Amino acid sequence: MSSKTMGEIHGLFFNDPSPTDVISFDYGEILICPLVAEREAHSRSIPVLKEVLLYGIHGMLHLCGMDDRREEERKQMEVQQEFILKSIWEKLGFA
Question: I need a surface site. Which of 33, 53, 61, 94 has the fewest CB within 10 A?
Answer without folding.
Answer: 94
